[in-house]
Amino acid sequence: MTQVLERLRSVFFDLDGTLADTAPDLAHVLNRLLQDEGHQPLAYEKIRVRVSHGSDALIQLGFGISGSDPSFEDLRQRFLALYRSHLANETRLFPGMETALQWLERNGMKWGVITNKPAWLTNPLLEELGLSPRAACIVSGDSVANRKPHPEPLLLACELLDSKPSQCVYVGDAQRDIRAGTLAGMRTLVALFGYIDHEEDPSTWGADGIIETPLDLIDWLSLNHAALEPRGS
């Protein structure tokens, strides 16, 4: 039986490593904390590939300790406090992303952000990037009880935009993003330009497509699954 694909109405983005290149600021903050604690800073590329996995992963990487270590939570809280004061000094949209967002807006497609980042960091970051007024919805890691890879944040985003999951696509740079999108019933795209370790194989994640640049999103939407409503409909 042939599956009937609905026209897409909404596009959701992961934040770190998909919508915005946040790694420069996060790497700066981690290395500052390491130096404050008498450790040597880490190479940027070593930090970059861990950014999408959040503050826990960065503390584990930098200090070589697990979450059960007595010092872990204090270091994590200090890291987050430092990051809040250095939120968008070097963070920018990935090259081509602004063009992709404008294309979505011009073609009447809503777009939003779904991230595991807590709202007290997500909201001011998007404000500083000038994206808050444009995003149709913003779902943070603490907006719901379960974070990605659970589908709950994605289903909330659908509800907020009055879109069915089958009318949405989720773009992310981590396997948890693709898993969450699949469980929610959305179509999914891997952002290959994001923070993907060379040891990972995104082709095994089960996504509907892989894009190498944000501009590839326009091509994918234009060519796949009748993304746009016919003019005059």
Structure description:
The protein is an alpha/beta fold and 233 residues long. The protein has two domains: 10-21 and 91-223, Rossmann fold (3-Layer(aba) Sandwich), CATH 3.40.50; 23-84. Helices cover 39% and strands 12% of the residues. The chain is built from nine helices and eight strands. It has a six-stranded parallel beta sheet, with helices on both faces. The chain has a two-stranded antiparallel ribbon with strand order 2-3. β4 (110-114), α6 and β5 form a beta-alpha-beta unit. α1 (23-36) packs across α4 and α3 (54-63) crosses α4 (72-84). The longest helix is centred in the N-terminal third of the chain and has 14 residues, at 23-36. The radius of gyration is 18 Å and the shape is globular. The two termini are 28 Å apart. The model is unreliable at 228-233 (pLDDT under 50).
- Lateral strand order in the biggest sheet: 5-4-1-6-7-8
Helical coverage, percent range: 25-40%
Which structural class is indicated by helix and strand composition? alpha/beta
- What is the count of helical runs? 9
Number of domains: 2
- Helices and strands, in N-to-C order? EEHHHHEHEHEHEHEEH
| Quaternary organisation of the protein chains | single chain
Uncertain stretches: 228-233
